[in-house]
């Protein structure tokens, strides 16, 4: 699970860096929140999840870890994809997508927290 999180983290990092580059080139920073969330929830958080799961392989083998992985990796693109579309089209009728994606991420992080708190102290 650790390597899976690290691999997807670098994909998010690449996407966020490319978005930042495009915003800089065209001097339009309307998508800064998408750029920041892709960096934080995609690159940084998933890298940390990956490192923690690599350090604690017993935690990475749980159903909690697998569910966390899928909730986070479905929630982030839904949340940020819909936000990007809303910003691009100036249409807020899709906000439910942002809410659904956000809830998926929050539940995933909750499962991660429970999983880590269940680790036995050495």
From TrEMBL:
InterPro entries: Cyt_c_oxase-like_su1_sf. The chain crosses the membrane at residues 40-57, 69-88, 94-117. Signal peptide: none annotated. This is Cytochrome-c oxidase. It comes from Lederbergia graminis. Keywords: Membrane, Transmembrane, Transmembrane helix.
